[in-house]
Design a protein that fits this description.
The chain is α/β, with parallel strands linked by helices. It folds into 2 domains: 5-199, Alpha-Beta Complex (2-enoyl-CoA Hydratase, Chain A, domain 1), CATH 3.90.226.10; 203-248. It has helices spanning 29-44, 75-93, 110-117, 144-152, 154-163, 169-174, 187-199, 203-215, 223-235, 238-248, and strands at residues 5-10, 13-18, 50-55, 60-62, 99-103, 106-108, 120-124, 128-130, 167-168, 180-182. A 6-stranded mixed beta sheet has the order 1-2-3-5-7-10, with helices on both faces. A 4-stranded mixed beta sheet has the order 4-6-8-9. It is globular, with a radius of gyration of 19 Å. The chain starts with a strand and ends in a 10-residue tail after the last helix. Bound molecules: coenzyme A. Coenzyme A (COA) binds at residues 23-24, 26, 63-68, 106, 108-109, 132-133, 135-136, 138. Residues 23-24, 26, 63-68, 106, 108-109, 132-133, 135-136, 138 line the site of coenzyme A (COA).
Amino acid sequence: MYTTLLTSLDAGIYTITINRPDKLNALNKDVFTDLNTALDEIERNPEIRSVIITGAGPKAFVAGADITEFGGLNKEAAMALAKRGQDIFARIENSSKPIVAAVNGFALGGGCELAMSCHFRIAGENAKFGQPEVNLGLIPGYGGTQRLVQLIGKGKAMELLVSAHMIDANEAKQLGLVNYVTTAETLLDHTRKILEVVNSKAPLAIAGCIKAANAAYDESKDGYALEIEEFGNAFDTDDMKEGVTAFLEKRKANFSGK
Ligand code: COA
């Protein structure tokens, strides 16, 4: 089904592994096509409750956009490429199911942008983050200038953008770019454990949280109004009735996603 991704579904957790280890999992056209198809599958398949995105091999999550595809692009083609990348990463950010980046090495350029479009990030201790585009006479094109500022604040983001300086996993954690740092060996297990907890919660309520939290960063939306609406929507769900009843009956809730 995919030429550049490995996928597996286990206990509601869909793991997507970007699989071009010889090219440090660089994002070429085929990876974008496959990621877009995988996002359709995530939306379509009710057995998928949450998602991990990681990279194949011990060295890289994703070392950026595939630089070999940049040769010969004119301004219009470059803008179309940035739009395509931004659209796919916006689909990740706005997915109603939690998508977590398990960063297992270099997350540079488009790789850092991919990780930042996920709902949150866990890093192996060998992870390295950076936006090295200025080394190539470029700027980030897949949302990096916006999401880096949102996640770590303008001052530090500016420094990383204009210096191409790479930071390690521990500094990324101090800056709030990643939530946890694990050993390289335990990265996927740790990420799965977090998602097992997430998967035991009410799916429609999770979707509501994602939508309302994302609105905090979208000037075209009134996040507080959206929160009121989503809060109200939750009262129309079977899961809210089940959650409240289970609490009162002192038992664990069994959510149906309805
Ligand atoms: N696009 C295309 N190919 C890439 C790539 C990218 N972004 N990043 C790495 N590769 C390829 C290399 O060309 C090399 O291929 P080859 O074996 O056919 O020559 C292979 O992946 C291994 O990379 P290499 O550079 O040999 O590994 P390294 O350990 O010496 O260095 C990096 C690792 C990440 C520091 C280095 O690969 C790098 O700087 N990559 C580009 C990062 C970047 O600028 N990303 C932003 C792009 S906008």
